[in-house]
Amino acid sequence: MTTTGPREMRVYSREFRMQVVRRILDGERVPALSKELGIHRKLLYEWMRRVNEGGETNLRERGRPRKAGTAAVSAPPPVSELERTVARQQLVIEFLQACLAASREVAQEQRDWRDGVFQAIEAAMQRQGGLSVETMCELARVARSGYYRYLRIRGAEAGGTRRKR
Question: Tens of pLDDT along 41-70?
Answer without folding.
Answer: 998 998 888 888 878 777 766 666 667 665
